[in-house]
Amino acid sequence: MKSEDIRKKFLEFFANRGHAIVPSSSLIPDDPSVLLTTAGMQQFKRYYTGELDPMKDFGSYNTASIQKSFRTSDIDEVGDESHLTFFEMLGNFSFGGYFKEKAVEYGREFIEDVMGLKIDYVTVFDPTKVPAGDWRKGVPRDDESRAIWEKLGVKDIRAEGTEVFWGPTGAEGPCGPTTEIYVNGVEVWNIVFNEFYCDKNRKLAPLKTPGVDTGMGLERLAMVAQNVPTIFETDLFNPLISLISGKLPMRVRRIISDHIRGIAFLVSDGVRPSNKDAGYMLRRLMRRVIAYAYRDNIGSPPQDILRLVVDQYRKFPDYRNLNSDIVIKVFSEEYEGYKEKVGPEIKATEKIFSEYKAQGKKLIPPAVIFGLHQSAGVTFDISSDIAEELGVEVDRKAFEQDLDRHKKISRAGGEKKFGGHGLILNTGELKAGSEEELKKVTRLHTATHLLNQALRDVLGKDVRQMGSDITVERTRFDFTFPRKMTADEVKKVEKIVNEKIEENLPVGFKEMPKTEAEATGALHFFKSKYPERVKIYYVGKSLEDAWSKEFCGGPHVTRIGEIGKFRIIKEEASSAGVRRIRAIVG
Ligand code: GLY
């Protein structure tokens, strides 16, 4: 049975049984507590709670839909036989129209009589399978569903715990026990009985009117109906997979086809690549595809595969918003920007991983993975793909912990200085809340590099930077030196910096492996842990004959003439053997 026939039969079946057919909602949900739409029930949450009236909106207590869905949590599994990020979900829903008996009967009738498939077994909820202390432990055993299945002649009924309890989606919402249908060993249909409202603290209260919410992945149903071993061999994926080079490992072909579909649908629903939330998810999908396209010959330009997806789905009324011009434009912009920047980084990543492997190390240190993500734009997914190919390992948990920690530090820094409003830059050392502030702190930042070098010129090479802090008003610079500077020394330092500024030298940077960078003699913190690849910012025409060079993430002015006049306003003790200078510019 073709997937198009499955769609038709599903909607007809439920329309003939008094269900209003409701269009798919957007992948960007109304519910702000979730990033993306993960299930058909999401657009109906407020009908379950009684806030909205289904009779008024749909003319029925029962609805059915084919909902586009996106599950970010499954991204690591994509590449196996049945996991996807983007997929379509067939679902029927009731908000007080029917409950367990009808829902189970419909399930059996559609699978066996309409689809002509054989149910292997079903599952029902049993709290004795739920771990002690779990919030679902007190939910009663679902004997009613078991009895209905028995009456319908299903022999193999298996008791399960938390696997057969749905929800809530997001922070709170309707939830309840489920019963699942398995065909050819694959779970195809999840029938949820929303009996409770689950609050933010995982406390359950009975819903006034219990409801039904079901979800059946179209791709999986097509797989069992078409009797193929993986979803990628169904008619939904065949055309896509065949555009991707057969020389690539099957896992990679699957990842590319999954991500391309996700990109087409996310962009068409208005998501744009960014560093936050849904935009970041889209960026991850895009960058992974771009990384593959850059490293390997994937067979067709990704743009052609995107166009195919749009052509494949645009014919369905729910997906008229798919627009290949927009999808390709948004993708190509990300492609151009990223290819230039990250192409070399990908090669470097391969080299770094190979070196670890040659040293007999299996796990790439999490700090390296985070460094690649943070300073080289190599996302975790790409690192993980390269690791898989080279036979080394990466630790996702550690990466996520690093990312969380970094976000918390940035946020805390921002809130302290700007009350949490509109921080556009926070490197720890520099913070700016607006474009104008950004310009000012950037000038102070470059001036700080000049100060560092001038201090070494005047006081000797034992001067070492101990820390710096730059606000819109001033730079504060701590360095090792055993005594108070004389007034003459302070003047000399100031003079050197201002002479350099007058020369209006250019500022450049170069990126390279850490060991290579250390060999250039560029200044850097002794104890600091740098990533495997670092940037060196230098003042002068080239790195080789630069007067000032330091390991640094930027930002800096392009020519030091932009800094304006430099003035030291204070020299004082910071702690034993450490002096502190405050300076201003402009
Ligand atoms: N809401 C039921 C499911 O997505 O499986």
Automatic annotation (TrEMBL):
The keyword Cell inner membrane does not apply. Residues 1-586 form the Alanyl-transfer RNA synthetases family profile domain. One of its GO terms (biological process) is alanyl-tRNA aminoacylation. Its EC number is 6.1.1.7. The keyword Protein biosynthesis applies. This is alanine--tRNA ligase. GO terms for cellular component: cytoplasm. It comes from Candidatus Jorgensenbacteria bacterium GW2011_GWB1_50_10. It comes from the Bacteria. Belongs to the class-II aminoacyl-tRNA synthetase family. GO terms for molecular function: alanine-tRNA ligase activity; aminoacyl-tRNA deacylase activity; ATP binding; tRNA binding. It is an enzyme of class 6 (ligase). InterPro entries: aa-tRNA-synth_II/BPL/LPL (IPR045864), Ala-tRNA-lgiase_IIc (IPR002318), Ala-tRNA-ligase_IIc_anticod-bd (IPR018162), Ala-tRNA-synth_IIc_core (IPR018165), Ala-tRNA-synth_IIc_N (IPR018164), Ala-tRNA_ligase (IPR050058), Thr/Ala-tRNA-synth_IIc_edit (IPR018163), tRNA_SAD (IPR012947). Keywords: Aminoacyl-tRNA synthetase, ATP-binding, Ligase, Nucleotide-binding, Protein biosynthesis, RNA-binding, tRNA-binding.
